[in-house]
Every structure is written in C-alpha cells, then in structure tokens.
Design brief:
Layout (H helix, E strand, L loop, with lengths): L3 H11 L5 E3 L1 E2 L2 H9 L5 E3 L1 H7 L10 H14 L4 E4 L9 H14 L3 E5 L12 H18 L4 E5 L10 H17 L4 E3 L6 H10 L4 E4 L7 H7 L3 E3 L3 H19 L12 H6 L5
Parallel strand pairs: 1-9, 2-3, 3-4, 4-5, 5-6, 6-7, 7-8, 8-9
Helix pairs in contact: 2-4, 4-5, 5-6, 6-7
Length: 277
C-alpha cells in the first residue's frame, strides 16, 4: 500500500516537470479512464462531483459526500489525486477547513484546491487575509496528521470578475502572493486564458501558477513555454461526457437510431479497468 505521505511527496515532485497536466475526474470510473490515458496525476472537479450527487456546483455538497467521492477515486487509481474542496465546507472557517483537510488526508488525497469564494456578507470573495488564515490552518492540519499535502490556493478574482477590470490583475497577484506566504504550494487563477495576462501572472506571482485551460486557451506546450506550472480543465471533461450522453439519448429517443453509440469503449475493456487484485 502506498501511504498518503508518499503520494503527496510524489505529487509535489511531479511539479518539477512543467507543466504538470491534471485532467479532472468526477468519479471512480472517469478517474480510471484518465489514469489509463496516461495521466501522471488526477485532479477532481467539484462541479462534476456535485452533479453526480444531483446537486449544483458551488458549496452545495456536504463534507462527507465530497470525502466519499475522493475516497472512491483514490482507491481506484494508483496515481496521486488532488481534491477540489471548494471553500472547505461547513461555514468555511479556518477550523472547518482544518477538519476537511484531516478528512482529505485520511481519504488518501495528495493535494487540495482551496478557493477564496464565496465571500461573506454578500461579497464575491473572502478578504485575502481571511483566506490566508484558512491556508495556514490547512497547512497546520496536514502537519498535525503526520501527513503531507500539496495546497493549491485558488483566487476567483478573474473567474467571478471581482472589482473593476483594471484592478483585477493587481488584486489577483496580491492575493496569490499572500496565499503563498501563508503556506500554499501553488497558486490557481482560473478565468484567464489569454497568453499576455498569463505570462504577466507568471512573472508577478512568487510561486508556481495553475491555469484552468480549455477552448481558446494556449496549448499545453505553449502554457509551459509561458512558465505555467500546472494545467487543469475544471469541469470541461465532465461537460464533454454529458454532451455525448445528451446526443446519444436524443438520437435514440427522437430518431430511434444508434449512430452516437458508435465508437464507444468496448464493454470488456471498460469492465476490465476494475479487475484489480
């Protein structure tokens, strides 16, 4: 059995190869498919996991539901898994984050994403100092368990378009550098896909940068040339799978034909993915 600490150490070492590509899984089956496709590590997507439970994305899961999903994924693959834990669950306090981190480590995950949204009192984002305290609590909780954890601190300045457009770059950089000083290993700035801004973020942020890529973004190779440390795609693969399901169902129901089912993974291949000793 590979220990959680060994998984975290291996995951941290993977960041020396730039960029580390993290396809996002939403359940055990998608994680196994991604592993067999050649991924060196897997990230989860809170949106995809939420949809599996019949919920919308955005802090609508209970902690124990997310932890169960993480546990299923970790037990199904041999590569490191980093878990999207949204805002930390509970009320999102530092104590809540610490309790979630302890559960994540017990489930075997090697890392987490922890985001600075939603804010309090109607604000889009938490005050940066508040999120920094949550990051410190996550780091202390990991150390207290005797485990290790790669913390990817996410700021949603660009994703949620917080503040005036001309203020967002400086705000994202200020938050990212504060989060790095609080103990984050990586800094995640979703909502940015133009090469010029990404290159400027790489230069201004004092730590490895995670970009959420997708259609319209530079290629993985180009992101690596810009200095990006890791690339994930959020719920994009989940959405592609849902779109394929929708096409197949509509064709079956409306036309009574099966063209959309052609090219599917053979049953034997799918079933054999889980024939593990």
């Amino acid at each position: 059995m590979i220990s959680q600490q060994d998984r975290a150490i291996a995951f941290r070492q993977l960041h020396t190869g730039r960029p580390l590509v993290l396809p996002n899984a939403w359940d055990a089956a998608s994680a196994r498919v991604i592993e067999r496709a050649g991924a060196l590590a897997i990230a989860t997507t809170s949106a995809g996991v939420s949809w599996v439970y019949g919920r919308g994305d955005g802090q609508q899961l209970r902690r124990e539901e997310m932890i169960q999903a993480i546990r299923w994924i970790v037990q199904t693959v041999d590569i490191p898994v980093t878990a999207d834990i949204e805002g930390g669950y509970g009320a999102g306090s530092a104590r809540d984050v610490a309790e979630t981190v302890q559960a994540v480590i017990a489930a075997g995950a090697a890392g987490i994403n922890l985001e600075d949204s939603p804010g309090r009192d109607g604000e889009l984002l938490l005050l940066p100092e508040v999120h920094a305290e949550r990051i410190r609590a996550a780091r202390e909780a990991a150390l207290a368990t005797g485990g290790d954890l790669v913390i990817n601190a996410r700021t949603d300045v660009y994703l949620f378009q917080a503040g005036a457009p001309e203020t967002r770059f400086d705000a994202a950089v200020q938050r990212a550098n504060l989060y790095r000083a609080a103990g984050a290993d990586c800094l995640f700035v979703p909502g940015v896909i133009d090469a010029e801004t990404i290159a400027a973020l790489v230069q201004a942020i004092d730590g490895p940068l995670n970009i959420m890529a997708g259609p319209g973004a530079p290629s993985v190779a180009q992101l690596g040339q810009l200095g990006v440390a890791r690339v994930s795609v959020g719920p994009a693969i989940t959405l592609a799978a849902l779109a394929a399901t929708q096409r197949a169902a509509r064709e079956l129901l409306e036309q009574g034909t099966y063209g959309a089912l052609e090219g599917g993974m053979p049953f034997g291949e799918a079933n054999s993915m889980f024939a593990r000793s």
